[in-house]
Write a structure and sequence with these properties.
With about 375 residues, the chain is an alpha/beta fold. It has a single domain, classed as Alpha-Beta Barrel (TIM Barrel), CATH 3.20.20. The chain is built from eleven helices and ten strands. The strands form two sheets. It has a seven-stranded mixed β-sheet with strand order 2-3-6-7-8-9-10. Strands 1-5-4 form a three-stranded mixed β-sheet. Helix 2 (about 115-125) runs parallel beside helix 4 (about 150-160) and helix 7 (about 215-225) packs parallel to helix 8. It is globular and about 65 Å long. The protein starts with about 50 loop residues before the first strand and ends in a 30-residue tail after the last helix.
Length: about 375
């Protein structure tokens, strides 16, 4: 596959990236530039529609051994994400497909149509040992296409049949659609949910996370999930010094009022292509803050745009990072969010009987 041609001119409506540079593995590199042929009389930006491509997968459970990640098994129903969050750390993965981490990541989407069936097959293997599966570790499992495709819904239905514990993270209120599964599983200590709330500023959210739910809708999701007995954590991620970090306390306070039980945060991460994409976005949407923000980011990353060492990549290091961590701990304690995430019950896991199993011989 080859990436879309470069897109010049104003930001595309509903898109986070400001360019569509070729991926780092491509032999031919393309960049946006102004050749003077833009139509200044028509300021309306071009539109790029989403394309959805099914993936041929043999398995759906992925495994990792990262000491910085709070799970070892995960499922990502989608590859690419139309929420368009400009800071998304999953963007560089699109370059392995010969696509751009920029606009391609937001518009050329892939989904796993057989995810529910494949998951059932994996869980039914004789040697399978249950462990908490995290859903949405890379891209959001409740992005807009889920309304129609229902891939995540199929995964949850499978997990419910097997009474298998899982956690899930999203920044979409669409998760409320699945309360009929989440609530009873929560009553059996089989699920916990994290909702990502990066800002309470509606204008900033629209710019930074253009097709995700508004901050108010996310708080509403926390409230409804909590009221239904589902344990909810709020994730203030990413925390961006000089841009949204001043909202940390307010986000935690509002989340606690909505019923969240615990909280976490991750400092802005800018690996590989994301560093350029994020700085392009800053230059267009927040030009007055761009230099300050990047200066503070580099102070947290040893003078670089990003440092990937385990133990440091999630929180950064240095005085700015230390102050952010101290503020977060104090705010969690102040608003009653300093409780650990609830443990989930692995003992309830059962492979459900299927038609044709030997037990059928003894049924009347």
């Amino acid at each position: 596959m080859s990436p879309n041609p470069p897109v010049s001119g104003p930001a595309l409506r509903g898109r986070g990236a400001r360019s569509n540079r070729s991926g780092r593995f491509e032999s031919a590199q393309r960049e946006d530039f102004d050749d003077g042929w833009n139509n200044d009389d028509d300021p309306r930006p071009a539109r790029i529609d989403d394309t959805l491509t099914p993936m041929r997968s043999k398995t759906v459970i992925a495994h990792n051994d990262s000491p910085d990640v709070g799970f070892s098994a995960s499922i990502n129903p989608y590859r690419g994400c139309s929420h368009g969050c400009v800071y998304c750390y999953a963007r560089p993965a699109h370059t392995y497909l010969g696509l751009s981490a920029g606009l391609d990541f937001e518009t050329k989407l892939f989904f796993k149509p057989e995810a529910g069936r494949l998951l059932a097959s994996e869980l039914s293997r004789p040697r399978y040992k249950p462990q908490v599966i995290h859903i949405g570790g890379d891209t959001d499992p409740y992005q807009p296409a889920e309304r129609r495709l229902r891939i995540t819904r199929g995964i949850l239905e499978t997990l419910q049949r097997f009474q298998h514990p899982f956690s899930i993270i999203t920044k979409s209120a669409l998760i409320l659609r699945d309360l009929d599964i989440l609530a009873p599983m929560a009553a059996s200590s089989l699920v916990r949910v994290a909702v990502s709330i990066t800002t309470l500023d509606r204008k900033l959210a629209r710019s930074m996370e253009p097709r995700a739910a508004t901050p108010e809708r996310r708080l509403e999701a926390v409230r409804h999930l909590s009221s239904a007995g589902v344990p909810v954590a709020v994730m203030f991620a990413p925390a961006i010094p000089g841009l949204n970090d001043h909202e940390m306390e307010d986000v935690l306070r509002r989340s606690a009022e909505a019923g969240a039980r615990t909280a976490g945060y991750v400092a802005l991460r800018l690996p590989l292509e994301i560093a350029d994409l994020f700085q392009e976005w800053l230059a267009t949407d927040h030009p007055g803050r761009a230099r300050k923000v990047m200066s503070l980011v580099r102070q947290m990353r040893g003078g670089k745009d990003y440092a990937s060492e385990f133990g440091k990549r999630m929180k950064g290091e240095g005085p700015i990072a230390d102050l952010m961590a101290q503020r977060f701990v104090a705010a969690k304690r102040r608003y009653g969010l300093d409780f650990p995430s609830p443990s989930l019950d692995l003992s309830r896991f059962r492979v459900p009987p299927q038609a044709g199993d030997q037990i059928d011989l003894f049924r009347v």
